[in-house]
Specification:
The complex is a heterodimer. Chain A is α+β, with helices and mostly antiparallel strands. Chain A is built from two helices and six strands. In chain A, a hairpin with a 3-residue loop joins β3 and β4. Chain B is elongated and about 80 Å long. Classes of the chains: A alpha+beta, B mainly alpha.
């Protein structure tokens, strides 16, 4: 079994700014059900973290920009780490991710173990 | 209480208290001496009480006799160490040293003993055995019965663990404040396993099983009564134990066979324990960390009301989702899938169940048998038959057979 990082990208421009508590709760449920399903298969390594939309991009020569949207339209909304036999299986597990319902996508990457 | 019952009863309640106080006084390397002194005291009680009749206050008698025996031991030790190896623990070998068997010192000593026994250097199974032996006054035979093994294995396990406590020079004391939380985690795990050993054991000795649960709760309560160890997870664990044990009378029949949750007579559920569970669950809702005990206690709370509602099963599903993210276990994975069936329907749950990868587990096939019942009875039957072939305990097999009969009728 290898470990895979799932990065959730959201369409930063297309995000609704106002979300009602009910919508928030409904969204949370979708995420919890999806992560619970992966965990029930004993394939969740880390529940990872969610990220707020604001950020800074730091470049050489003391250049700091309000980012990261300047260069990319999509922003990273969060990540988790899962366990799977192959990249294909990891991609298969990502198909149920709720981010896909709101115009986002999941990037699946193989983790290189550090010894 | 009759005399024949009195001594075993006092042994259960007093043995561990005196052992804890004396071990604390002598130091852990003399724990076996402390046990010998208390065993001798009980032996003497059995002899003299039978001849001369019961003393006015049997407990006080036991305390006095064991105190005297302890002082004798300390005198002998002083003689020995005074001549041969001076300067060993001089403070502990003074016969004038107060042997304090007040309830406060008993409590403190037992609590400190709990931390010594649940030291990370002791394997978990031995921690449970030692707890039963030293903190709960269980004999080797009873412990062997609870673990479904033989006395010799238990004696060896206990001796090895005591040796380890000696060689590692584990102190009988509360850990320093900065270490309390991490050390408490081991203590809670041991209490949790001690309780589970009683609650889920396949041993048919229901009295013994109930005793294990009561002891786990008593020790848990000691943690809560001490300011330093009264943490949110400790309260959550006690809440969990209260909710589970509220069903004790309802979950076995007269032969000691398990009665499944669905078939239990709710009027036998203990309301007082359910209320206590709610109280401790409220006490647990401080701090920011959600422990697995919080989640399990909350799941157990929802089970104290048998009525099926969408809200109940949705809540249970979400709690299992969180629990599995903290710690995977096959039983939690199966229970989550059951909750999913109750909340969202069997079809969705079947798809999820088949992803679990637990096809060696009879409970997995029982779950699928249950989910397919009414949708595809042929498949249901097939799963129940596989479950029957995999199940080992008589209780499991009879529950599965009942399901097969139901489908065939």
């Amino acid at each position: 079994m290898k470990e895979f990082l799932l990065v959730f990208r959201i369409d930063a421009a297309g995000q609704q700014s106002q979300v009602s508590p009910e919508q928030m709760q409904a969204r949370m449920k979708l995420w919890q059900d999806w992560m619970g399903s992966i965990a029930a298969q004993n394939k969740l390594v880390s529940s990872g973290n969610r990220l707020t939309p604001e950020g800074r991009v730091v470049k050489a020569n003391n250049v700091i920009t309000n980012g990261p949207y300047v260069e990319i339209k999509e922003a990273i909304g969060g990540y988790i780490i899962i366990r799977a036999d192959s990249l294909d299986e990891a991609a298969e597990l990502s198909k149920g991710c709720p981010i896909l319902n709101s115009g986002g996508n999941v990037e699946v990457r193989t983790v290189v173990p550090m010894d | 209480m009759k005399e024949q019952e009195l001594i075993p009863h006092l042994f259960r309640t007093e043995y561990s208290k005196i052992v804890a106080v004396l071990s604390k006084l002598f130091g852990i390397e003399y724990m076996e001496t402390a046990e010998d002194i208390v065993s001798d005291t009980f032996l003497l009680a059995a002899e003299t009480w039978g001849l001369k009749g019961l003393p006015k206050n049997p407990t006080a008698w036991l305390y006095t006799v064991s105190k005297n025996k302890a002082i004798d031991f300390l005198r002998r030790e002083k003689l020995f160490t005074g001549k041969i190896i001076p300067a060993i623990k001089p403070e502990s070998i003074s016969p004038e040293h107060e042997i304090d068997l007040s309830s406060k010192n008993i409590n403190d000593s037992q609590l400190q003993m709990m931390f010594a026994i649940c030291h990370p250097c002791i394997p978990t199974e031995a921690q449970i055995g030692l707890s039963l032996n030293i903190l709960c006054g269980f004999g080797g035979e009873e412990i062997a019965d609870a673990f479904l093994t033989n006395k010799e294995t238990i004696y060896k396990r206990l001796a090895r663990a005591k040796e380890k406590l000696r060689t590692e020079k584990v102190e009988i004391e509360l850990p320093v404040q900065s270490e309390i939380n991490s050390r408490l985690e081991t203590v809670l795990t041991t209490l949790y396993l001690l309780f589970s050993e009683g609650y889920y054991s396949t041993s048919k000795n229901t009295i013994l099983r109930k005793d294990l649960c009561i002891e786990a709760m008593r020790l848990n309560l000691m943690l809560i009564q001490n300011e330093q160890t009264n943490t949110a997870p400790a309260n959550a664990l006690l809440a969990l134990m209260c909710f589970h044990s509220s069903r004790f009378e309802a979950r076995t029949n007269q032969n000691g066979d398990i009665i499944l949750y669905e078939e239990q007579d709710e009027s036998l559920w203990n309301k007082e324990l359910i209320e206590k569970g709610e109280h401790y669950l409220n006490c647990a809702s401080t701090g920011t960390r959600l422990s697995k005990y919080h989640l399990e206690a909350a799941i157990a709370y929802w089970h104290t009301n048998k009525k099926d509602t969408k809200e109940k099963w949705e809540n249970i599903l979400q709690l299992y989702n969180k629990l599995l993210q903290i710690e995977y276990s096959p039983i939690a994975a199966l229970n989550r899938t059951y909750a999913l069936a109750k909340a969202n329907g069997k079809e969705e749950a079947i798809i999820e169940a088949e992803k679990l990868g637990l096809s060696d587990d009879h409970l997995y096939h029982s779950l699928l048998g249950n989910l397919y019942s009414g949708l595809d009875n042929a498949k249901a039957l097939q799963h129940f038959k596989t479950a029957l072939a995999l199940a080992r305990s008589g209780t499991d097999r009879s529950a599965i057979t009942k399901n097969i009969d139901r489908l065939n009728s």
